[in-house]
Amino acid sequence: MVEANNLVTKVELFIAARDLVNKDTFSKSDPFCLLAVQHAAGGAYTEIGRTEVKKNNLNPTWKQTFQLDYYFETKQPLKFSVFDYDESNPDDLGNVFVTLGELVGKGTSFLQLNRGGTLVVRVDEVKSSRDIFMLRFRGIKLDKKDTFGKSDPYLIFYRNISQNQWSEIYRTEVIKNTLDPVWNPFELSEQQLCNADRAKPIKVECYDWDKVGTHDLIGVFETTLVPLITRGSRFELRNPKKNKPAGIIELTDIALRKNLSFIDYLRCGVQISLSVAIDFTASNGEYSDRGSLHHIGEGTGNEYERAIWEIGGILEAYDTDKYFPVFGFGGVPHGERKANHCFPLTGDSQNPYVLGAQGILDLYRTSLTRVSLSGPTLFHHIINQTIAVASSTPPQSIYHVLLILTDGAIMDMDETLNSIVQAAGLPMSIIIVGVGKADFDNMERLDCDGGSLVDTQGRKSVRDIVQFVPFRKYGGNPVQLAAEVLKEVPIQLTTFMKMINYAPDVPEAKPIEGGESSSHHHHHHH
């Protein structure tokens, strides 16, 4: 891995407006746009920046952009407000609320302002380069440092920080007893080599390794990125003390690969599709009982409702049609005789879908009257249902997230392990939320961060796809719960795409069309 996963993703927002309302009687408005962010749920919106003023213009494309840190796993509500500039009292030309996730999910968004007109927002990842180079160097006729025998040479690569400040980015292995070493190939990203600024100098030093005392400097050269990554380039080492040549370093081999990010895959059309599975086993407690985990009371909603609302609300931004299938398990659906371990809550196996997080909630509430609680708690039927769907869609177009909400101990551990190991080879992740006070110890076995799951046949899981979190761990704070279970999803998705070697060309971001130059109106089709 070259890029660490915990780096914050920075995004840049490009802003334009079309067909703004005209407030001025004698001339057109002079609009500017202000961006405010809500940091805590339900809290106030704080201004984080504003664009320049565009004189006399109802279709401005502003030059000033906004940069924000993007977190997939949280909502990040934004408010854009457009004003007509006026020294004393700016006129309100309209505002719109949207989450950063919705903007990232779409790429370019056309948002209706509440006073008429459209705000156009394009999101780009602030990432100067995706390139990673596989480099292989050799030395030719290096200067001999030892009176007896040959040298033991190695190379150190440095990135330039400022005038005379250098930061070591890589050192090769030592090749023993030779003046013509061939080093092993290694990978460095353009970011590491020069911070993606191709004019920056790169320094390479060649040393003779010594078991005792200091290693002797054989020679040094400075270059920039392009020569360093040109196959066949030869660099002359100079010994700074004697200021004379000390041998040649040659780049014998170079390969390039792209390190695509989560947002890159979204730009290439990858969708995230959510499926939800809800536990209808008897241990939840009868609906009518106030202590039931399925009790629908007044106020904040039960744990099932809150988990659905938060997690569904974030994931729906990454799916164009926002239709999600919802299943029950461990209950007896209306008109059936025995417990069913994977049934559509709509009652229609041809159409298990509802629209958005709100649709999932509404369906959950109405299903409580149509399903009798039963048991036992079995997961593998539900997981196999998503496996079947994930196997039948092109792996580079839809990534499936299965959300299982459960109140209890799982009774089919072996079958579930086998299903999870199979699922790891498919475009899917599994999120399990433990509801209620039960003992969830055996769930932790499924979520082995770092380790590998092994199925009953001894097959190892090719990647980690399960996140398990008990709802109570966050003291009933569903926002924190959602952040915890979702933060692995982008990593799991990119790991899968790399595993199947899906490395498409990321489409170039197009500037926002139209604006000042265009006299006629653009009609955008959604």
Automatic annotation (TrEMBL):
Residues 1-113, 115-239 form the C2 domain. Keywords: Calcium, Cell membrane, Cytoplasm, Membrane, Metal-binding, Nucleus, Repeat. It comes from the Eukaryota. One of its GO terms (biological process) is cellular response to calcium ion. One of its GO terms (cellular component) is cytoplasm. GO terms for molecular function: calcium-dependent phospholipid binding; metal ion binding. It is found in: Cell membrane; Cytoplasm; Nucleus. Pfam families: C2 (PF00168), Copine (PF07002). InterPro entries: C2_dom, C2_domain_sf, C2B_Copine, Copine, Copine_C, VWF_A, vWFA_dom_sf. Gene3D superfamilies: C2 domain (2.60.40.150). Belongs to the copine family. This is C2 domain-containing protein. It comes from Stentor coeruleus.
